[in-house]
Amino acid sequence: MYAIIATGGKQYSVQPGDTLRVEKLDAQSGDTVKFDVLFINDEGSILTGKDVVSAYAEAEVLGEGKGEKIVVYKYKAKKNIRRKQGHRQPFTAVKILNIVK
Questions:
Q1: Mean pLDDT across the chain, nearest whole number?
Q2: Domain around 7
Q3: Count of CB atoms within 10 A of residue 45's CB?
Q4: What is the pLDDT of residue 101?
Q5: Structurally, how many domains does the chain consist of?
Q6: Cα(67)–Cα(92) distance, rounded to whole angstroms?
Q7: Is 26 helix (H, G, I), strand (E, B) or coil?
Q8: What is the pLDDT of residues 21-65, one digit of tens each?
Q9: Which of 28, 51, 71, 91 is deepest in the core (most CB within 10 A)?
């Protein structure tokens, strides 16, 4: 059984037991969060649309962190204008516990 969940403007394919990094959530380590389900495939039977309105995926928050540094460098040719900036995207690590139909 697997499901497609939506969080942080992105979609993820998950199964119970999966660990993934999602956009930062407002939750503490050890909390349980619920994600909206868009699609469920349960051993060949497919549920989508109105069939999954009440479905959700339960996940446990493992912790928070920051991703790898990305360097952004902007410049204007022939104008001696240069700007260097770094960015580290915050994330929340979650473990999928189960998918409820």
A1: 95
A2: 2-100
A3: 9
A4: 87
A5: 1
A6: 10
A7: coil
A8: 999 999 999 999 999 999 999 888 899 999 999 999 999 999 999
A9: 91
